[in-house]
Design brief:
The chain is an alpha/beta fold and 521 residues long. The chain is 41% helix and 12% strand. The strands form 3 sheets. The protein has a 10-stranded mixed β-sheet with strand order 5-6-4-3-7-1-8-13-2-14, with helices on both faces. A two-stranded antiparallel sheet has the order 9-12. A two-stranded antiparallel ribbon has the order 10-11. Strand 5, helix 10 and strand 6 form a beta-alpha-beta unit. Helix 5 packs parallel to helix 19, helix 11 packs parallel to helix 13 and helix 15 crosses helix 18. The protein is globular and about 95 Å long. The chain starts with a helix and ends in a 22-residue tail after the last helix. The N terminus and C terminus are likely disordered.
């Protein structure tokens, strides 16, 4: 800006037009009153006026440049994104990214690597270590809450979410996850309860909300007991949504047969509980990437745009189990889904993509001592040989059809199991962590906890205003920046929501407000 001011002044001043003013006319002594003629006075006034005009022009120019740089149009309005995709890699801390990258190809990298912009702090109102409900609320609502609270503030009052704000602007909304669709993270975008474990109530609110796309697991939360579900109120939420025009799916073949040109809502619940880990998944369930592809095909047809939540839910569950092979499989599948979304966003040009974790889980270390010895090495090939999650191995052994050594030989590629390792598993055969022990030792992978950790997580962004996410942010910033880019007013959405208090009859949950509460999911 100083150079611009000088240049404008030189071009507009008499000197810049070739007139030379005597040095004594330009600068006067601080101790002597100069002798000025009427001509001198007129020239000086002219210089001052021209200089001020130059400053004003330069200031306007610089203001325009800065405004455009920060996303404002020439009219002063903030330019908006048409579509929003929020991707949550549940439990995926920075070391998980290293695990995935080095296992895939250390020199090739992940799709996520190209859009890394910063980090996110994850603490909740009550705890330095958050759970998924408080973490999800921060992202979905731009506000902090207590551990266990789902899209409510610290007093238990409902908060407007990104998806609700999107619907207010006549955008289509969708959720694609690999957990129950009523699990903590998707619940934070589509329901309001003071206790995340109230999944039957969450499912009922989601059925009322009825997004354009709802894909994932957790069918039992939507069906009454008499139909094989878990609801004690007798309601068949799938039938209720179908009566409102939804297409209800339960198999990959039904997903593939969808009429993409139809505007009818799609509800696809492909498992009674959580969908399988990617390492265990067979043809009876679609992959996360395939569900994302279908969701984008359905939502992009809407002229007013869309907002979509995607969660790689089970990265977190594998980390809770301290199962590095299952964690790797779901992390890589999530990255494949990221690539699919980025391909769409690059072609579309009007889609903001944000990827962030609600927290890190397990405290995984890529490299661990064995018998007190540090090798400065770890072995991805050990994980590549594993073809079944630790939980499935435990269930297989419990069925009585195979021995411990045979299970690990067949599904983990371990042919040198020691007697000590076998005895350790036998003494705690129901523990998924014990089944993962031989794999962890051979791969040199360590974990510090079966719960969450408080480390900052990676923040990724692509598309309009992605630069706004640079740096270290509180997790509430993620939701608020996304809302600003989309032109969503979350405060107004909260006001509208609370005006319908009868729909969400919530009260504070004192037991949820205790500092130090522990959540293992």
């Amino acid at each position: 800006p100083p150079l611009i001011c000088v240049r404008v002044f030189m071009e507009l001043s008499p000197q810049g037009q070739g007139e030379e003013l005597d040095q004594q006319e330009r600068f006067v002594s601080l101790t002597e009153e100069p002798q000025r003629s009427p001509c001198d006075t007129r020239l000086r006034k002219r210089d001052v006026m021209l200089f001020l005009v130059g400053v004003l022009i330069a200031s306007a120019f610089v203001g325009l440049v800065l405004a455009l740089e920060h996303g404002r149009t020439s009219s002063g309005e903030y330019s908006r994104s048409r579509n929003l995709v929020v991707m949550v890699s549940d439990g995926f801390g920075p070391a998980s990214a290293t695990l995935a990258r080095q296992s895939k190809n250390p020199n090739e990298g992940l799709a996520l690597d190209s859009i890394l912009v910063g980090t996110s702090r994850t603490h909740s109102v009550t705890n330095l270590i958050t759970d998924s409900a408080a973490g999800g609320t921060a992202i979905a609502c731009g506000k902090k809450t207590f551990n266990g609270g789902v899209a409510v503030d610290s007093d238990g009052k409902p908060l407007g979410t990104l998806l609700e704000a999107a619907r207010t602007q006549n955008k289509k909304v969708g959720l694609v996850v690999t957990s129950h669709v009523s699990h903590a993270t998707p619940a934070c975008f589509s329901s309001h309860v003071t206790d995340r474990h109230e999944e039957m109530e969450i499912a009922a609110q989601q059925a009322d909300f009825l997004p354009a796309v709802l894909l994932g697991g957790g069918r039992k939360m939507f069906l009454p007991i008499e139909k094989g579900g878990g609801r004690t109120d007798g309601r068949d939420l799938l039938e209720e949504m179908a009566r409102r025009g939804a297409r209800v799916l339960s198999t990959p073949s039904e997903l593939e047969a969808l009429d993409i040109q139809s505007d009818a809502p799609v509800v696809g619940l492909f498992a009674e509980g959580h969908m399988d880990f990617e390492i265990d998944r067979d043809a009876s369930q679609p992959s996360l990437t395939r569900m994302v592809e279908v969701a984008l095909q359905l939502l992009q047809r809407h002229g007013d745009g869309f907002a979509l939540l995607i969660e790689g839910s089970r990265i977190d569950h594998a980390a809770h189990d301290n199962d590095p092979a299952a964690q790797l499989g779901d992390a890589l599948e999530y990255d494949t889904a990221v690539q699919k979304v980025l391909d769409f966003a690059r072609e579309d040009g009007e889609t903001l993509v944000v990827s962030v974790s609600d927290h890190s889980t397990g405290g995984i270390t890529v490299g661990a001592d064995v018998s007190g010895t540090a090798e400065y090495q770890w072995y991805p090939d050990v994980l590549h040989r594993v073809s079944m999650s630790a939980g499935k191995m435990a269930a297989l052994y419990a069925s009585g059809t195979s021995s411990i050594s045979n299970v690990l030989n067949a599904y983990a590629g371990i042919t040198d199991l020691t007697q000590e390792e076998e005895d350790e598993i036998h003494s705690n055969a129901e523990s998924t962590s014990s089944w993962g022990g031989p794999v962890r030792r051979r791969a040199r992978i360590g974990y510090t906890t079966h719960g969450h950790t408080g480390v900052d997580v990676n923040l990724y962004a692509f598309g309009p205003h992605a630069e706004d996410f640079r740096g270290n942010h509180d997790n509430t910033d993620v939701g608020n920046l996304a809302a600003r880019t989309m032109g969503f007013d979350l405060a107004a959405e909260t006001t509208r929501l609370r005006a319908r208090r009868g729909v969400y009859d919530l009260s504070p949950c004192p037991s949820c407000l205790r500092v130090g509460d522990v959540y293992h999911d």
